[in-house]
Design brief:
Helix content: 40-55%
Radius of gyration: 30 Å
Strand order of the largest sheet: 6-5-4-1-2-3-7
Shape: globular
Number of helices: 21
Structural class: alpha+beta
Strand content: 15-25%
Mean pLDDT: 80
């Protein structure tokens, strides 16, 4: 069997690719163009690039655990003795030529390996073949386990929310001597079809932990290559109701749709269409569009609108969807019935642009769609559309009743978190069931939800970490009906059915929302579960579940109008993901600008009237209309700036995002 992928060569490329995008294989410029572009950058940027190159070269040449000397030429070794300087980057040309050649060799190796994989997959069952085709780059650095079973080997891949896939290789003949089960991180799979069957090679790192994958790829220790011949592989697949799982994690509205789309797209990429139900396949194209537009909306928010359509590449499968007018037209009824024809018209424009082969126009229309969708989220006019989509998403996955072994442990984590948070909330007058709680005070509804992240850390030694955060919201209620039978509603929804997550993207003066202990704080309450039943060697694992009580106390104080405690403000100032208000300084200034203009006009009117009847210019240092106009405008501007500063200072003192 021929091996194509060189682990160390791939690791070297990853080290430089992670340093700056210009050093990645996706850079389509040649070495001279790249050096010229680097030299045109600011001194600060050049200094950062030079420092990164020097640091990477030191890792390759001076780390005793790394053995890559055969991959380095004399030019690279010389750079280790004479570091790159920001004021003389023209010397980078030999380095860039070496890196360019490295990327070419790696790219060719991946193509040949993928071709061999595809060829072998053509002789298998369709389901097993589609999984194998995804195992070249998609499965790199994934947790796996390999066990002996019935005269063959069973490869268990990383379990996801949507399910778990395993490949069984029957009639294995191998000279491999080692210990099973083999647990580690998969680097690559190579396959070859022969007249006598199939031959496979697995490259696995068996070191526990997940730190510094690139450096680990360059080391000789803790690596196993398992090569064997076998019969035709068979896919063993367990599919789970990931819609219900996301619901149990407290996801609602935008958050539920975004996570569902990510899981559905990942499922299709990993297993192919064979794993998708008919209803999932019907909804998958819309899921791909929504996933891209949510990414665009997030970039737009983080950059305050200072984006360009090229910042997010449109996936080819999304472009293929836009080119299929029949498939796209299936969603027209959904948009029309929920009153979102304007959103559908924007998507039709992107379809027309793709028909004209104008990819830039397609990106521009999708940016427009993302902005319009986010605006509708803020004024709460897209709720019916979202409810219909969520209902269909839950129907798509309800047919899968397989039980997840790993995520089945969530019931233990949920029970522990519930026993911690629920008594505190009930003592403070909240009602509801985990993970959503609510209470009514006067005409305001106050909500607290416990959220579980669907991105959980799982180490090869069998410890699964669940991350919990807390969301809080306040919303004005509407009272309907007579006194005895009166019911309270929030934006058309019954109070008893509303959650904090329903307020997450709504932006009006009657709604406040905050997330505590999540991405905005760069810290979560954690519960660790030993899912491999003691393989980690730890009888108990440390967790920080009680941290959620601190976040709950912050929320309860905020409901009373109190500012964040000092320790919590300090946490947010020092977090790596800085707390960002949904309303920016510029947006707040524009909000108060009409007030400033109104006051300016009022002052000007008062001056004109009073000067006509009382000649106030005799008593004031304003002797003409032009001076009065300028002073009134200045006063209005100062008032606007003052109101903006006060508003932003208040936002900094409180947890609310807007």
């Amino acid at each position: 069997m021929r091996y194509y992928i060189d682990r160390k060569r791939m690791g070297i490329a990853e080290i430089f690719s992670g340093m700056h995008p210009i050093f990645s294989p996706s850079n389509d410029m040649n070495a001279k163009e790249t050096v010229r572009l680097i030299c045109e950058q600011s001194f600060r940027t050049r200094a950062k690039i030079a420092a990164g190159i020097n640091r990477a070269i030191r890792r390759l040449t001076q780390d005793n655990t790394v053995d890559v000397e055969e991959y380095l030429n004399d030019d690279i070794k010389n750079l280790s003795e004479n570091p790159v300087r920001a004021d003389n980057l023209n010397d980078l040309l030999p380095f860039m030529k070496w890196l360019e050649e490295l990327h070419k060799v790696n790219s060719l190796a991946v193509e040949r390996s993928q071709y061999s994989l595809n060829d072998a997959a053509n002789y298998m069952d369709r389901a097993a073949g589609e999984l194998l085709r995804s195992c070249s780059t998609n499965m790199m650095w994934q947790n796996i386990s390999i066990i002996q079973e019935d005269g063959g080997l069973l490869l268990n891949l990383t379990e996801r929310f949507w399910g778990k896939a395993s490949l069984f290789f029957p009639d294995v003949s191998s000279a491999f001597e080692g210990t099973f089960p083999l647990v580690g991180m998969l680097f690559c799979i190579e396959a070859e079809h022969t007249d006598s069957g199939f031959e496979f090679s697995f490259v696995v790192n068996v070191e526990f932990g997940t730190d510094d994958m690139e450096l680990r790829a360059l080391q000789n220790r803790n690596w196993v290559r398992l090569t064997f011949k076998c019969g035709c592989p068979v896919l063993r697949l367990s599919l789970f109701d990931y819609g219900k799982c996301l619901r149990d994690f407290g996801k609602c509205g935008h958050g539920f749709i975004e996570d569902w789309c990510s899981e559905a797209v990942n499922k299709e990429q990993s297993l192919g269409s064979i794993s998708m139900s008919e209803k999932e396949q019907e909804l998958l194209p819309l899921a791909k569009i929504l996933r891209v537009t949510y990414q665009m909306a997030d970039v737009d928010m983080l950059t305050d609108g200072g984006h360009s359509p090229s910042e997010i590449a449109i996936p080819n499968k999304v472009l293929e969807l836009l080119g299929n007018r029949y498939r796209f037209g299936l969603y027209e009824k959904l948009f029309e019935e929920t009153g979102q024809q304007d959103l559908y018209e924007i998507l039709k424009e992107s379809v027309d642009a793709w028909g004209d082969d104008d990819v830039e126009a397609v990106a521009s229309e999708l940016w427009k769609f993302a902005g319009q969708l986010r605006a509708k989220e803020r004024d709460d006019s897209v709720r019916e559309f979202y409810d219909r989509i969520i209902k269909r998403m839950l129907e798509c996955t309800s047919a899968f009743d397989g039980k997840s072994r790993i995520y089945g442990t969530y019931s233990d984590a949920e029970e522990k978190m519930r026993s911690i948070i629920e008594p505190v909330l009930m003592q403070n007058g909240f009602t509801g069931d985990y993970p959503h709680y609510r209470r009514r005070r006067g005409k305001k509804g106050e909500y607290i939800s416990v959220l579980t992240s669907n991105i959980n850390k799982r180490t090869v030694n069998g410890v699964l970490t669940y991350y919990f955060s807390l969301s809080a919201a306040v919303k004005k209620l509407e009272r309907r009906g007579k006194r005895k039978n009166a019911e309270f509603f929030a934006s058309g929804m019954p109070f008893e059915s509303t959650t904090a997550e329903d307020c997450a993207y709504v932006s009006d003066r009657n709604t406040k929302y905050a997330e505590l202990g999540g991405a905005y704080d760069d810290e979560s309450a954690e519960i660790n579960i030993d899912v491999f039943e003691g393989m980690s060697g730890e009888s108990q694992t440390f967790d920080t579940a009680n941290e959620l009580l601190k976040f709950a106390e912050v929320a309860l104080q905020a409901f009373k109008g109190k500012a964040m405690p000092r320790w919590y403000r300090k946490k947010r100032r020092k977090s790596s993901v800085r707390y960002k208000n949904m309303i920016t300084t510029g947006g707040t200034f524009m909000k108060f600008l009409p007030l400033g203009l109104y006051i300016s006009a009022l002052l000007m009117g008062v001056y004109v009237v009073c000067n006509r009847y009382f000649e106030v210019s005799r008593y004031l240092p304003v002797h003409d209309v032009r001076t009065a106009l300028v002073l009134s405008l200045v006063f209005g501007f100062v008032l606007t700036v003052t109101c903006t500063l006060i508003r932003m200072l208040l936002l900094r003192r409180h947890i609310w995002r807007y």
